[in-house]
Design a protein that fits this description.
This protein is mainly α. It contains 22 helices and five strands. The chain is globular, with a radius of gyration of 24 Å. The C terminus is likely disordered.
């Protein structure tokens, strides 16, 4: 056994790579040891996209080197260490045996499953475990609970306004919102007109550390979803800040008006691409918000663009986290619409004649990324109107995106995309026919299906499934003021047309049910999605 280490063992998780994270405050370099551990359970509790695993492991290795450069003692456990126990709890216990610290210090994790596991570490290790609040966020969980208490509806817009006031963002000296409005969303929904010319994404070529991790992941997790060829994510705080600066200068000016459009062969458009860096701690939300606010104040971006982006970070991201911790663990089990259809295999392979789905899945496979409208109104919308089982849908979103951690993924998917929470988050389901996709993208131009048809064999599946969805839940939706006009439209339709639409929907679901998704290792990934 190594000599007794009388200081603290300070664990930093792979999504806590912030020098100021709570677990590192008060660190004594002469006595304390920082533990970072690559463990197989965190790589496989869902079968994460290869790029996500590379992102987290490479960022952890770079973070450890940055700590060492400051004279901090780091115990780093590599995935291929022969003594690696394979679990975070196991590595904490092993480090306690080897170093004999007086306590373990860790910032509370972002996922319920890990917090549950940590509750037993003190007994397992025989030393106190200090679980510290993660105060890197702009809203404490206690404040959110107080805000939510007694409210019948937990609407993000009202929460967002409180966050603006709390942090003094885009406010006049008298506390009024800059420009006279809190929200410029109506100016940020322009449909696709022509093919936009967008600045290229900032590319960060893999360095030696990242290339080593890429080789490890390609060998160890070869059956996981996704490809590594296009990996270009920031893996250090310095790279992340360069990516943020690039976005603010080059793409934020066009972000507002174009944030909802979708274009074939343009996976990034005007989007920030900073969610991975935010979610693993390379950037802090306040520095991201202040960067956008400063660009507006300097006259470099329109107010609608700055406000729309800030709302996503200061409003939506903080709100989502609050909902997760307020409602877990029961939230994950909700299935208000009683959706039970199995997730089709084309969510993994892209092998579908629906061009919009094929494009989004192919992009997701190659980049571990799709922007919010692709996630919400293509793959999410289809899952909603088809009635795919929430557990399968949530697992898919957790697997395929590099920025997916349960605190942010689950409420976005469960509440916003598939309405499984029955309206806790959204006042109406985000359901749409093919007309929305046609208005906001060019996907329908290259599609086998006719976006104006709902009943024929070449009719757009989104059309039949949309009206079938409304019909299936007619009684529920009739009581929702925002859905009542849609129900009335259904009731005015010719009954023969409704029957034909529902027959078409039933045929589609039966076909997809027969090709229900198997585990990713059961079928090979398509080299290219089928667009026929």
């Amino acid at each position: 056994m190594a000599g007794r280490q009388k200081g603290a063992l300070r664990l930093v998780l792979g999504d806590q790579l912030t020098p100021e994270v709570a677990a590192l405050r008060g660190l004594d370099p002469a006595r304390d040891t920082v533990l970072l551990a690559e463990v197989v359970t965190e790589c496989t509790y869902v079968r994460h996209h290869k790029q996500k695993i590379v992102l987290v492991l490479s960022a952890m290795r770079h973070f450890a080197e940055a700590l060492r450069a400051k004279g901090i003692r780091v115990r780093y456990v590599h995935l291929d260490d022969p003594d690696n126990t394979g679990t975070l709890g196991g590595e904490v216990a092993r480090a306690v045996r080897d170093l004999s610290p007086d306590r373990v210090v860790v910032t509370k994790p972002g996922e319920w499953r890990l917090l549950e596991d940590m509750q037993g570490w003190a007994d397992a290790c025989g030393v106190p475990v200090d679980l510290l609040e993660d105060d890197r966020f702009l809203c404490s969980l206690g404040w959110f609970r107080d805000w939510a208490a007694g409210r019948k509806q937990l609407r993000m817009e009202f929460f967002y306004r409180e966050m603006r006031r709390m942090h003094g963002v885009l406010l006049e000296p008298d506390g009024a919102p800059v420009g006279g409005q809190w929200n410029y969303d109506r100016e940020n929904r322009e449909p696709l007109r022509g093919r936009p010319t967008t600045p290229p994404r900032a590319i960060f070529a893999p360095d030696e550390t990242t290339r080593t991790v890429m080789t490890l992941v390609a060998e160890r997790f070869s059956e996981h979803f996704g490809t590594l060829d296009a990996f270009a994510w920031p893996v250090t705080a310095e790279e992340a800040r360069l990516a943020l600066t690039d976005f603010v200068i080059a793409r934020l000016p066009g972000f507002g008006a174009h944030q909802d459009v979708m274009v074939t062969g343009e996976p990034f458009l005007y989007h920030a691409m900073v969610s991975t860096s935010l979610n693993i701690g390379l950037l802090t939300p306040l520095e991201v918000v202040r960067a956008a606010e400063a660009a507006y104040a300097a006259g470099r971006v329109p107010l609608s663009a700055a406000e729309g982006f800030i709302r996503q970070v200061l409003g939506w991201r903080e709100y989502i986290r609050g909902i997760y911790w307020l409602k877990m663990p029961g939230y994950a089990r909700l299935n208000a619409l009683e959706a039970t259809e199995p997730l089709p295999w084309f969510y993994w392979s892209g092998e579908t004649r629906m061009n919009c789905v094929s494009q989004v899945v192919a992009q997701t496979r190659d980049h571990a990324y799709a922007h919010h409208i692709q996630r919400l109104m293509v793959t999410g919308n289809l899952a909603l109107i088809a009635g795919f089982a929430p557990a399968e849908v949530n697992d898919w979103y957790m697997v395929v995106y590099a920025d997916a951690f349960e605190w942010v993924e689950l409420p976005n998917t469960h509440g916003m995309a598939i309405h499984a929470d029955g309206g806790l988050m959204a006042s109406k389901p985000y359901a749409a026919s093919g007309a929305y996709i046609n208005r906001m993208s060019d996907y329908c131009r290259g599609c086998r299906y006719d976006v104006k048809d709902a009943t024929g064999e070449r009719g757009c599946p989104f059309n039949a499934l949309y009206w079938d969805f409304v019909a299936r839940h007619r009684d529920r939706f009739a009581a929702n003021p925002r859905m009542t006009p849609i129900v009335r439209t259904l009731e005015r339709m010719d009954p023969k047309r409704v029957a034909a639409i529902r027959t078409r929907a039933a045929s589609l679901l039966a076909e997809w049910r027969g090709d229900a998704a198997a585990p990713p290792e059961a079928k090979p990934q398509a080299a290219e999605p089928l667009l026929i």
